[in-house]
Amino acid sequence: MIVNQKDLGAGLSFLGMAIVYGRVALRELPFGSALAMGPGYFPIVLCMLLGVIGSFLTIRALCAAQRISLSSRFSWRPVTAICLAVIIFGTFIRELGLFLSVFGTAFICSLASRQFAWKSGVYLAVVLAILCTGIFAYGVRLPLPVIGTWFTG
Predict the structure, then answer these.
(1) Neighbouring C-beta atoms of residue 146, cutoff 10 Å
(2) Residue ranges of the DUF1468 domain (predicted)?
(3) What is the mean pLDDT of residues 59-81?
(4) How many structural domains compose the chain?
(5) Share of the chain above pLDDT 90, in %
(6) What is the pLDDT of residue 68?
(7) What is each CA distance from 38 to 5, 33, 41, 82, 99, in whole angstroms?
């Protein structure tokens, strides 16, 4: 049997996440209805979409025309950079504030690329920090500090 291992791995991962998180959302959060959405409505809809994508990838992997195997070399740089960026954002958003947290997250994520350039990384981080601060702090008015407690006392 010919199997596309990359699509199979991604599809099964998506299906697993959809099942686990969908089950937690169904058990712990009230669903509501389309007109009166409860806190569980959006996570359950996202889990259903994730399940559909996972099913599609799994079926596509099992119907592959040629064998594609995972290479023995695993690229740790992107995985480390993305995980570190998410951890830093979640840990220090109150202390650094929204602007600097988004800046740091975007800059650390840009380190994941092999074609990393300092100027483009800083430019990307500044633009994303300005956009996210404008949208989430001033547009949506999320209760997040723009400047964190380390700088305001």
Answers:
(1) 14
(2) 10-145
(3) 74
(4) 2
(5) 53
(6) 54
(7) 38, 7, 5, 31, 30
